[in-house]
Design a protein that fits this description.
Mean pLDDT: 96
Helix content: 55-70%
Number of domains: 3
CATH topology of the largest domain: Fumarase C, Chain A, domain 2
CATH architecture of the largest domain: Up-down Bundle
Bound molecules: arginine
Strand order of the largest sheet: 1-2
Structural class: mainly alpha
Number of strands: 6
Shape: elongated
CATH class of the largest domain: Mainly Alpha
Distance between the termini: 58 Å
CATH superfamily of the largest domain: Fumarase/aspartase (Central domain)
Oligomer: single chain
């Protein structure tokens, strides 16, 4: 049975909390990771209370020193978290009073754990968004590096996972860059709504003390204060929005992973992911498994799950704060941790990827990937597109039967399908000619990709 007298809210209770209820309702096991934000918020709150005359300067100083000592205790591993004290907020507040005496009890003036926790989560998430942005940028830089290195590398481009048209690997990498660029913009936009301060909303209705919320917001680096106290203590839409942005990032990472997994298979043999990023099999000595991309693809599912958890957590809640909201933390934290891990690994992995240019080239050559170029050639010579399509279809059929690529057929063979075909056809049937011809903004021509990389670097700066 717990020591009821330890609990800051024990006043109106006559019986102690059931031991299992205590364990069941506690969040300290997972919310202690917000200790820094909790202390930061308390210091700003105490400073504000002193500023408006609710605390004396001396009291404020004593409180701040006490909180700073607690922070260093926590960071040195000298802090025993207690389940009886339920959460990070009450653990720190109780310890403060232990350390500095009764003045510690004044810290909670004009505040509630409801606005406190909402503030802590926002501060925590804001910091994590900034870390995630840095990792995302590192990964984007890696993609640009690879794109630059492989600007002339030709590979098959796919639709339906069937060879479609040749593309450059540089162009392919820039596609991933674009997806991550939008992801980064989404995170930045989400940060605007995260960085608004609930503190001062107190339990739900505000407080009777002459608080200065603008002061506290400035101290904590918030862009603004929440306009409505009921909304501020209860809604977690900012966490849902973040998890939604995280889900989109993971969706992109998962697609990227799927390609790397395919590409590193013996059948494709387009890339080697580097020994540092693969593992072996305990039974099959030949195996080098792409575990990192596979796990990233796998983790995408749990992040989508967290988004669903948070949406469902919120949907039935009447105003204002409900204990349900304690369940926001684990999905949010797990989303952050896993997303950070995935981005970090991918950023580290990019420079390790070895591109097998010959295999890519060979694959591009073997799937009639210049068929569209031949059709376009015929159109330029006056053949209607639908007829050109038919002519090329027949040539491809012939190529399949004889095992020849279009570029390997003789002029006579090609002229058998259309007498409009002349010697100059061979310039456009090469892979190099095919990619170079797609020479406009957004196209795969190496010249365009070089320009696109330049622009991408500027956008990233
Ligand atoms: N541990 C709680 C949470 O995570 C803190 C707020 C609790 N407030 C309350 N009135 N019980 O949401």
């Amino acid at each position: 049975m717990s020591e009821q007298k330890d609990k800051p809210w024990a006043g109106r209770f006559t019986e102690p909390t059931d031991a299992f209820v205590e364990a069941f309702t506690a969040s300290v096991g997972f919310d202690q990771r917000m200790y820094k934000q909790d202390i930061m918020g308390s210091i700003a709150h105490a400073s504000m209370l002193a500023e408006v005359g609710v605390l004396t300067k001396q009291e404020c100083e004593t409180i701040i020193n006490g909180l700073e000592d607690i922070q260093s205790d926590i960071e040195q591993g000298n802090f025993a978290w207690s389940t009886e004290l339920e959460d990070v907020h009450m653990n720190i507040e109780a310890r403060l009073t232990d350390r500095i005496g009764d003045v510690g009890k004044k810290l909670h003036t004009g505040r509630s754990r409801n606005d406190q926790v909402a503030t802590d989560i926002r501060l925590y998430l804001r910091e994590q968004i900034d870390i995630l942005q840095a990792e995302l940028k590192r990964l984007q830089e890696g993609l640009l590096q690879l794109a630059e290195q492989e600007v002339d590398t030709i590979m098959p481009g796919f639709t339906h996972l069937q060879t479609a048209q040749p593309v450059t690997l540089g162009h392919h990498m820039l596609a991933w860059f674009e997806m991550l660029q939008r992801d980064s913009e989404r995170l930045q936009d989400c940060r605007k709504r995260v960085n608004v301060m609930p503190l001062g909303s107190a339990a739900l209705a505000g407080t009777t003390y002459p608080i200065d919320r603008e002061f506290t917001a400035r101290e904590l680096g918030f862009d603004a204060v929440c306009e409505n106290s009921l909304d501020a203590v209860s809604d977690r839409d900012f966490a849902i929005e973040f998890t939604s942005a995280a889900s989109l990032i993971m969706m992109h990472m998962s697609r990227f992973s799927e390609e790397l997994i395919l590409w590193s298979s013996a059948q494709f043999n387009f890339v080697d992911l580097g020994d540092k990023f693969c593992t072996g099999s305990s039974i099959m000595p030949q195996k080098k498994n792409p575990d990192v991309p596979e796990l990233v693809r796998g983790k995408t599912g749990r992040i989508f799950g967290h988004l669903t958890s948070l949406l469902t957590l919120m949907k039935g809640q009447p105003l204002a704060y409900n204990k349900d909201n304690q369940e926001d933390k684990e999905p949010l934290f797990d989303t952050i941790d896993n997303l950070r891990g995935c981005l970090r690994l991918y950023a580290d992995m990019m420079p390790q990827i070895i591109v097998k240019r010959e295999a890519m080239y060979k694959a591009a050559k073997s799937g009639f990937s210049t068929a569209t170029d031949l059709a376009d050639y015929l159109v330029r010579k006056g053949v209607p597109f639908r007829d050109a399509h038919e002519i090329v279809g027949k040539s491809v059929r012939y190529g399949i039967d004889t095992g020849k690529d279009l570029s390997e057929m003789s002029l006579e063979e090609l002229q058998g399908f259309s007498n409009t075909i002349e010697q100059d056809v061979f310039e456009i049937l090469t892979l190099e000619g095919s990619v170079a011809a797609r020479n406009h903004i957004g196209g795969t021509a190496p010249q365009q990709v070089r320009e696109a990389i330049k622009r991408a670097r500027q956008r990233l700066a």
